[in-house]
TrEMBL record:
<dbReference type="GO" id="GO:0016746">
    <property type="term" value="F:acyltransferase activity"/>
</dbReference>
<protein>
    <submittedName>
        <fullName>GNAT family N-acetyltransferase</fullName>
        <ecNumber>2.3.1.-</ecNumber>
    </submittedName>
</protein>
<keyword id="KW-0808">Transferase</keyword>
<keyword id="KW-0012">Acyltransferase</keyword>
<comment type="pathway">
    <text>Siderophore biosynthesis.</text>
</comment>
<dbReference type="Pfam" id="PF13523">
    <property type="entry name" value="Acetyltransf_8"/>
</dbReference>
<dbReference type="InterPro" id="IPR016181">
    <property type="entry name" value="Acyl_CoA_acyltransferase"/>
</dbReference>
<feature type="domain" description="Acyltransferase MbtK/IucB-like conserved">
    <location>
        <begin position="156"/>
        <end position="203"/>
    </location>
</feature>
<dbReference type="InterPro" id="IPR019432">
    <property type="entry name" value="Acyltransferase_MbtK/IucB-like"/>
</dbReference>
Amino acid sequence: MDFDAVKQRRALQSRSYVSLAPNLIHLKTAYGHHEAAFEVEAGIASVTFYHGDPVQSAELLMAAAEAVTAEDRSITSVVFEGHQTSLPRHIADADGRLDSAILWQWPSLWLPQLSYPLPPVQEMTAGRYHPRRPAKPKGTIYRRFIPWLERDITFTVADPETDLAAFHRWMNDEQVNTIWEDAGSIDKHREILEARIADPHVLPLISSFADIPFGYFEVYWAKENRLGPFYDADDYDRGWHVAIGEPGYRGKKWISAWLPSLMHFIFLDDPRTKRIVGEPRASHEQQIRNLDRSGFAKVKHFDFPHKRALLVMLGRERFFGDRLWVPAS
C-alpha cells in the first residue's frame, strides 16, 4: 500500500495510547480504537493486533510502533505479525523490521507542517558566513503524545498578538528573571517577541501541555548566535533557551517530557542538524544535571561577557542510537 505523509499527519494528529497491562496497549487514532499485544526478545518487539485492520493502514502500524517504543529504551526494532508489507519500503528492512531510530526520525509523525530544507546557499550576517535560513513557519510545528503524562505536548511559533500577555507575565516571574534578566513592561516584551520573530536565526516557541501554555523556548542556529565564536560551529548546529513560566510545570515530571521532545523537534526540523548545543550558566548545577541525564556531553567552560558558561552538546547519533526520546529513569 502506498504511504501518504499528508494523510498520515492528518489522521494521526490526535493519536494516544495507554498500557492496559504489561505488553498490552490500547491505541486511539482517527482510524478508531485498537488493541495490540507485543513481546520483546533481544530488543525486538513483535506486535499482534486484536482489533481493527492494520493491513489497510501503514500509518496505523507506525503509530503502534511509536507506542511500544515510547517508554522502553530496550526496544530497538518492531515487527508486525503478518503486516510487514504494509510499511513504507524505505522505512522497513527486507524482513519487515522497523528500526526504532529510523521511525523516530520520520518527521511526518510529529511535524504537522513539512517542508524541504533549503538548499545550502551561503550568505554573510554580521561577519559570519552561514547557510541562508528558511522562512519562519506559523502555528503548531510539533505535536507528541506523552504516555507517562497522558497528554500532548505542542510547540507553536510565538505570536505577539496572542502570546504577549503570557510572555509578559513569565518574564516578570522572579525565578525566570533570575536567569533571563528581562523583566519589564509589556511594551518591552512586545519588542522582544517582535525582534525574535524578525531574526532569521531564532525561532521563538510557546510550549503547551494539553493546550495549556507553560513556557517559552528559543531555538537558534548556533553559527550566527553569540555562542558560535566560542567553538567550531557546524553550519546546521542548533541551540536553545528555555523559560518555564508556569510554576506548576516545573520539576522532573515535566522536564522528562519537554526536554526530549524539544531535542526531538530540533533534529526532525532539519536532517542536516547533527548536534544540539547549549550554554547553561556554569553555576546552575540542577540544569547541568538535567542535561547530563538527557545525553548532553560537557565540552568546556568559557566566558561570555555576562556569565561563565558551560558548553554542552548532544549528537544526533547519540539521541537516536540511545533512544533518548525516553527519559532516564
